[in-house]
Amino acid sequence: ARRTTTTIPIVMSGVDDPVGRGLIASLARPGGNVTGLASTAREMNEKLLSLVRDLLPQASSVAVLYDTNDVDGSSILKKIQSAAKSAGLGVLPAAAQRPADVEPAIAAARKQGVQVLLVLPSSMLIPNWVADLALRNRLPMVSTAAGYAFDGGLLAYTDDRNAVFDRVAFFVDRILKGAKPADMPVELPAKFRLILNDRTAQSLGLPIPKSIELVAERIQ
How large a percentage of the chain has pLDDT more than 70? Predict the structure, then answer.
């Protein structure tokens, strides 16, 4: 969209590193026709790894399942690898280019001894399908997208999409009233959710620490 027009206002949400992509000049002063909300993928994945540490203190490694067709996949994987070092976790990339690659990738990760499966959200990696494969391989599955917890994964740490879309509407409203995107600072999500699937935790025989029980939205 940005390549197509430099005049029609564009309001984004969930875009990773919009400055690095050349969409805006800076978060504070976008400078063009694009504004809205950027992604906090790095911070959410850092928090997710911290929660993995709380849930599975004996875990030493995590497999990261990602869609190689997703333009964000490789860059987010690098950020996870950096954050994992701080958490004392090894990272095994589990790449999938097509649906037929997913099941072998998860099985191979399990065979190599990883204790957790972290899934980067993708339209190809359908939540209930991937969650079922993870359970078959006895791998707790975590993600930064709520659907992966609701559909059978163990845990998700995600931005509050309702709050994000409220802010998107705010940007659209202001632009329709005459504000210029160039002058509207790009925001980061401010509200987050921790979602825990109790049924999956029980299936995997995992005790839930009080620190997580007290703040998580529980799915029975």
Answer: 100
pLDDT of 62? 95
Tell how far CA 10 is from the center of its chain. Answer: 23
- DSSP letter, residue 201: H
Cβ-based neighbours of 70, under 8 Å, separated by 6 or more: 120, 122
Alpha carbon separation from 216 to 3, 84, 147, 162, 210 (Å, rounded)? 41, 22, 15, 17, 10
For residue 100, CA distances in Å to 7, 105, 106, 120, 209 come to 42, 9, 11, 17, 36
CA atoms within 13 Å, Cβ hemisphere of 132: 6
H/E run at residue 172: helix 161-176
Using CA atoms, how far apart are residues 170 and 152, in angstroms rounded to an integer? 34
Is 220 a residue whose pLDDT tops 80? no
Burial class from Cβ neighbours inside 10 Å (0-12, 13-18, 19+) for residue 88 reads exposed
For the stretch 118-135, pLDDT in tens is: 999 999 999 999 999 999
